[in-house]
Amino acid sequence: MLAQSQSPAADPAVNAYLDAIPADLETDKTQVIKDAIELNEKEAAAFWPVYKMYAAEQAKLDEERMQLVKRYADTWTTLTDAEARDMVRQSLAFESRRADLKNQYFARFNQVLPGLTVAKFFQLEHRLDLLVDLKIASELPSLLARSGTPGPPTPK
Hints:
- This protein is mostly helical.
- It has one domain.
- 75% of the residues lie in helices and 0% in strands.
- The protein has helices spanning 12-36, 41-75, 81-112, 115-139.
- The longest helix is centred in the middle third of the chain and has 35 residues, at 41-75.
- The two termini are 27 Å apart.
């Protein structure tokens, strides 16, 4: 059995950081959107109610994701093949649900805003998602660093 070292996320400070991401992000994100996408009064009146619904649904997805991230961070040194596969499936399912949500709200935003404004929002949204993904990934240990990781299954 592998000796279990304390993972970065088992550290209370890292767990606190992971817990704070959604709240901090939404506050900052709203301001970034206001600054980056110059909405006139009519566009703002149409955009923000739809965005609030989108953000609420995104927050639910993000909470599921953070639970998976924390579980991984707490167990990465002892993951079995089955647990690793399950976590990858859950991660891929999250990405699929996130894409589905964006597609759903792409249609809603297009009903109330010009196409260029919608494109600006989704480009900004994509960039912000990448920043959050990178920050989370940088805080997590990599399975590549795990000693004793078996290679691929031997073909029969």
